[in-house]
Amino acid sequence: MRTRPYAAADHDALIALFRTSVRSLAGADYTLGQVLAWAPDEIDRDGWKVRLAASSTWVATSDGPAAGFISMEWDGHIDMLYVHPDFQSRGVASMLLRRLEASAEARGLVRLFTEASIAARPFFERRRFRVIAAQDVIRRGQALANFRMERRLA
Fold first, then answer.
1. CA distances from 131 to 51, 66, 126 (A)
2. Distance between CA atoms of 81 and 96, rounded to whole angstroms?
3. Homologous superfamily of 2-110 in CATH?
4. Per-residue pLDDT tens for 37-76?
5. In the chain, beta strands by DSSP E
6. Mean pLDDT estimate for the chain
7. Taking each helix axis from N to C terminus, what angle separates 45-53 and 11-25, rounded to the nearest 10 degrees?
8. Distance between CA atoms of residues 136 and 147, nearest Å
9. Which terminus of the chain faces fewer neighbouring Cβ atoms within 10 Å, N or C?
10. Of 77, 78, 83, nearest to 14 (Cα)?
11. Cα(149)–Cα(74) distance, rounded to whole angstroms?
12. What are the distances in angstroms from CA 146 to CA 22, 99, 103, 104, 143?
Protein backbone atom coordinates (compact mmCIF):
# COMPACT_ATOMS: atom_id res chain seq x y z
CA MET A 1 0.00 0.00 0.00
CA ARG A 2 1.31 3.45 -0.86
CA THR A 3 0.05 7.03 -0.98
CA ARG A 4 0.34 9.43 -3.86
CA PRO A 5 -1.02 12.86 -4.68
CA TYR A 6 -4.47 13.12 -6.23
CA ALA A 7 -4.60 13.36 -10.01
CA ALA A 8 -7.54 14.56 -12.10
CA ALA A 9 -7.85 11.02 -13.49
CA ASP A 10 -8.83 9.88 -9.95
CA HIS A 11 -11.96 12.03 -9.90
CA ASP A 12 -14.63 9.47 -10.84
CA ALA A 13 -13.00 6.67 -8.83
CA LEU A 14 -12.94 8.80 -5.67
CA ILE A 15 -16.60 9.76 -6.05
CA ALA A 16 -17.47 6.08 -6.41
CA LEU A 17 -15.27 5.18 -3.41
CA PHE A 18 -16.94 7.90 -1.32
CA ARG A 19 -20.43 6.68 -2.21
CA THR A 20 -19.56 3.03 -1.60
CA SER A 21 -17.88 3.80 1.71
CA VAL A 22 -20.73 5.87 3.11
CA ARG A 23 -23.45 3.53 1.89
CA SER A 24 -21.67 0.43 3.20
CA LEU A 25 -20.44 1.70 6.55
CA ALA A 26 -22.72 4.49 7.79
CA GLY A 27 -25.91 2.45 8.08
CA ALA A 28 -25.08 1.41 11.63
CA ASP A 29 -25.17 5.03 12.81
CA TYR A 30 -27.53 6.81 10.42
CA THR A 31 -30.92 6.05 8.86
CA LEU A 32 -31.21 5.09 5.20
CA GLY A 33 -32.57 8.57 4.45
CA GLN A 34 -29.56 10.18 6.11
CA VAL A 35 -27.12 7.90 4.28
CA LEU A 36 -28.71 8.67 0.91
CA ALA A 37 -28.68 12.39 1.69
CA TRP A 38 -24.96 12.14 2.52
CA ALA A 39 -24.05 9.99 -0.50
CA PRO A 40 -26.78 10.47 -3.12
CA ASP A 41 -27.02 8.88 -6.55
CA GLU A 42 -26.47 12.28 -8.16
CA ILE A 43 -23.28 14.00 -6.99
CA ASP A 44 -22.11 17.41 -8.14
CA ARG A 45 -19.14 16.18 -10.16
CA ASP A 46 -17.95 19.68 -11.05
CA GLY A 47 -18.15 20.73 -7.40
CA TRP A 48 -16.06 17.72 -6.41
CA LYS A 49 -13.52 18.54 -9.11
CA VAL A 50 -13.08 22.04 -7.68
CA ARG A 51 -13.09 20.76 -4.10
CA LEU A 52 -10.41 18.13 -4.70
CA ALA A 53 -8.23 20.40 -6.85
CA ALA A 54 -8.32 23.15 -4.21
CA SER A 55 -7.22 20.76 -1.46
CA SER A 56 -4.13 18.76 -0.69
CA THR A 57 -5.45 15.32 -1.50
CA TRP A 58 -3.72 11.96 -1.25
CA VAL A 59 -4.87 8.61 -2.54
CA ALA A 60 -3.98 5.21 -1.06
CA THR A 61 -3.50 2.47 -3.62
CA SER A 62 -2.32 -1.08 -3.79
CA ASP A 63 -1.97 -2.82 -7.13
CA GLY A 64 -5.54 -2.01 -8.13
CA PRO A 65 -8.05 0.78 -7.63
CA ALA A 66 -7.94 3.38 -4.90
CA ALA A 67 -8.26 1.97 -1.39
CA GLY A 68 -8.93 5.35 0.24
CA PHE A 69 -8.30 9.07 0.12
CA ILE A 70 -7.87 12.08 2.36
CA SER A 71 -8.07 15.80 1.63
CA MET A 72 -7.00 18.85 3.59
CA GLU A 73 -7.82 22.49 2.90
CA TRP A 74 -5.14 25.19 3.17
CA ASP A 75 -6.02 25.98 6.81
CA GLY A 76 -5.65 22.43 8.18
CA HIS A 77 -9.28 21.42 7.76
CA ILE A 78 -9.53 17.69 7.00
CA ASP A 79 -12.39 17.83 4.54
CA MET A 80 -12.64 14.17 3.60
CA LEU A 81 -11.25 10.82 4.72
CA TYR A 82 -12.83 7.73 3.19
CA VAL A 83 -11.67 4.13 2.89
CA HIS A 84 -13.25 1.54 0.61
CA PRO A 85 -15.05 -1.18 2.62
CA ASP A 86 -12.73 -3.84 1.14
CA PHE A 87 -9.78 -2.09 2.81
CA GLN A 88 -11.29 -1.35 6.24
CA SER A 89 -9.19 -2.27 9.29
CA ARG A 90 -5.99 -2.55 7.25
CA GLY A 91 -4.35 0.70 8.36
CA VAL A 92 -5.30 2.68 5.24
CA ALA A 93 -6.90 5.59 7.12
CA SER A 94 -3.97 5.74 9.54
CA MET A 95 -1.48 5.79 6.67
CA LEU A 96 -3.40 8.58 4.93
CA LEU A 97 -3.63 10.63 8.13
CA ARG A 98 0.11 10.27 8.75
CA ARG A 99 0.76 11.53 5.21
CA LEU A 100 -1.53 14.50 5.79
CA GLU A 101 0.06 15.29 9.18
CA ALA A 102 3.54 15.31 7.62
CA SER A 103 2.35 17.74 4.96
CA ALA A 104 0.63 19.97 7.52
CA GLU A 105 3.73 20.11 9.73
CA ALA A 106 5.96 20.85 6.72
CA ARG A 107 3.67 23.77 5.88
CA GLY A 108 3.91 25.10 9.42
CA LEU A 109 0.30 24.45 10.38
CA VAL A 110 -0.33 24.28 14.11
CA ARG A 111 -3.77 22.66 14.07
CA LEU A 112 -5.79 20.06 12.20
CA PHE A 113 -9.56 20.02 12.47
CA THR A 114 -12.47 18.10 11.02
CA GLU A 115 -16.12 17.20 11.32
CA ALA A 116 -16.13 13.48 12.11
CA SER A 117 -19.07 11.16 11.65
CA ILE A 118 -20.25 8.98 14.50
CA ALA A 119 -18.18 6.06 13.16
CA ALA A 120 -15.08 8.19 12.51
CA ARG A 121 -15.01 9.83 15.94
CA PRO A 122 -13.19 6.92 17.70
CA PHE A 123 -10.60 6.79 14.91
CA PHE A 124 -9.76 10.46 15.40
CA GLU A 125 -9.85 10.22 19.19
CA ARG A 126 -7.28 7.40 19.08
CA ARG A 127 -5.08 9.83 17.13
CA ARG A 128 -5.25 12.56 19.80
CA PHE A 129 -8.06 14.63 18.28
CA ARG A 130 -10.48 16.02 20.83
CA VAL A 131 -14.16 16.79 20.44
CA ILE A 132 -14.90 20.49 20.41
CA ALA A 133 -18.66 20.11 19.96
CA ALA A 134 -21.35 17.75 18.77
CA GLN A 135 -23.47 19.18 16.00
CA ASP A 136 -26.11 18.37 13.41
CA VAL A 137 -25.47 19.25 9.77
CA ILE A 138 -28.23 19.36 7.19
CA ARG A 139 -27.73 17.45 3.93
CA ARG A 140 -30.58 17.40 1.45
CA GLY A 141 -33.12 18.01 4.21
CA GLN A 142 -31.70 15.39 6.59
CA ALA A 143 -29.99 16.19 9.89
CA LEU A 144 -26.79 14.18 10.40
CA ALA A 145 -24.99 14.16 13.74
CA ASN A 146 -21.24 14.65 13.68
CA PHE A 147 -18.45 16.03 15.85
CA ARG A 148 -16.23 19.05 15.38
CA MET A 149 -12.78 17.83 16.40
CA GLU A 150 -9.26 19.23 16.48
CA ARG A 151 -5.69 18.28 17.19
CA ARG A 152 -2.80 20.61 17.90
CA LEU A 153 0.40 19.81 16.04
CA ALA A 154 3.83 19.92 17.65
1. 25, 29, 12
2. 8
3. Gcn5-related N-acetyltransferase (GNAT) (3.40.630.30)
4. 999 999 999 999 999 989 999 999 988 789 999 999 999 9
5. 2-5, 56-61, 66-72, 77-83, 111-116, 130-139, 142-152
6. 94
7. 100
8. 8
9. C
10. 83
11. 17
12. 14, 24, 25, 23, 10
CB-neighbour burial class of residue 144 (10 A; exposed 0-12, middle 13-18, buried 19+):
buried
More confident position, 64 or 110: 110
- Indicate yes or no: pTM above 0.90: yes
The long-range contacts involving 70-77, CB below 8 angstroms and separated by at least 24 positions, are 70/96, 70/97, 70/99, 70/100, 71/6, 72/100, 72/103, 72/104, 72/112, 75/109, 76/104, 76/109, 76/110, 76/111, 76/112, 76/113, 77/112, 77/113, 77/114
Helices and strands (H and E) in the chain: how many? 5, 7
> Domain boundaries in the chain?
2-110
